[in-house]
Here is the input.
Amino acid sequence: MKNRDERIKKIIIDEKRLFLEDRIPSEYKHDEYVTDTGSLYGVALPQNKEEIQQLVQFASSEKIPMIVQGAGTGLSGATAPQGGELVIDLHLMNQIVELDEDTMTLTVEPGVLLGEIHNYVEKRGYFYPPDPGSKHSSIGGNVATNAGGMRAVKYGVTRDYIRQLDVILPDGREMSLGSLNIKSSSGYDLKNLFIGSEGTLGVTTLIKLKLIPLPKEKRSIIVAFETLEHATDAVLTILRNGIDPTTMEFFEKEAIALSEKENQLDFPSQIGNAYLLITLDGDSRASIESRLHQLNGSVRQHHALEVLPLTDPKMEHTAWFLRDQLLTAVVNYTEQVTLDEVVPVPHVSELYHYTKELEKESGLKMISFGHAGDGNLHTCITRGDIQDEKEWQEKRDDVLDKLYGKIQELGGLPSAEHGIGIIKKKYFHKMTAPINIEIMQQIKKVFDPENLMNPNKVL
Here is the structure.
C-alpha cells in the first residue's frame, strides 16, 4: 500500500491535487441519489492529458477501479463510489483551446462548463445548441451522458455536435475518435460508441465541438392551459403544423410555484394550471411572426387560455430561470425520485395521464415537467408527508416498477439524457433485450477487460 501511494504521489506532486485516505474531501464519498456508497482509494485532479494517462496506467497496473468525474451535477449515481476507487476529477482541465472558424469547430478540455461554452461562442456569432438544464455541468459530463436538454426538439443532442474526441483507454493507450470531416463511411463509428457510455470505456481528454451560425432572431412565448392534458395534447399539433419550435417545455402550475417560492420571483403568466414555454428562432423577424401566428391558431384548438409573447428581456429571463430551477425547487421541497424517461412524442399525453392514475392509486404526489417536443418527461415521485421509511420505500418502488413498465409498453426508454448510472440500472436491464445487454457487456470487455473503468455502472 505504501509503495502504491508513493507511485501516485510521483504523478501528482502537488498535494493540493491529490487526496488519499483521511484527506479525501467528504463530497467525493457521497452521492445525493445513492445512499449506500463505498470508500475511496483516493482523488486525483490532473491538469493535462499526460497526468491523466499516467494516472490511468498507474490504476490499471495496481488493479484500482477508476471513476471519472467532472462538475458533479449528474443525476443517476454514475460517479457514486462503491469501494476502493480512484476518482479522476477533471474539473481543472477547463480550457477553451481553439475556435477554428474555417471548420466551425471549438476545441475544449472536458472540464469546461456548458454555460461558458455558450457565452464564448455566442459573443462571436456562433451557436452551440445543446442546452441541458444545468449550465454548470461540464462538457465532458455532457459527452458521457449524451446530454440533451431543451433545444433537442429542433437541434438534436450532444452526439450531433461532437466532431472528434481524444480519449485514454483503461490500459493507458490513446485514441482519437471521429474527425473534422463532415461525412464518413470509414469503418465502425467508435466516437459515437463513447458518447453516452458514462465513463465505462475510457477518459475523454479533448473534444472538438461542431458550431453553427447564431440565429439572428428569437422569441419566447408562454402558452397557458387549464390542464397539463390540454398542453400535452397541443404538442403534436404544434409539431405537425411545421412551426419548428426551438424549445417546447411543459410544466404544471404547482411545479413552477415551487420554483417561484424558492427564487422569490413571479412567473410571467398566472393564468391556468399548466404551461408550455416555447422558443422560436430564425433569421428574420417576419419568419418568427408568421410562425407565432400559426402557433396561436394551433394552441387555440386545444383550449389555450393565453398566448403570451415575452417581448420584455427581463420577463423572458425570469421565465427561463424559473424553468431551469424547477428540479432544484422540487428537490428542496421534499425527498423525491426524479426520472428522465422518454417515449415517442405521440405518447407523451398518455404517459402523463398514467402518472396521474398512479398518483391516485399510490397516494404519492407526482410532479411532471420536461421537454414536450422530444417526448422526454421528468416525473418526480415525491415523498411528501410519509414519515415511515419502509412505507415510503415500498410505495416508491411499486410506483417505479409500474411506471417503467408503462414506459416500456409505450415504446419508451428509461433514460433520455441523465444516463443509467446505478439508480436506473435495474430498470434498464428489465427493459432491454438480453442480447443487447450481452453485446454491450462484450464491448465493455474489449475496451476494459479488467473492468476497472467505472465498474458496475450501466451494465
The mean pLDDT is 96. Residues 389-409 form the longest helix (21 residues).
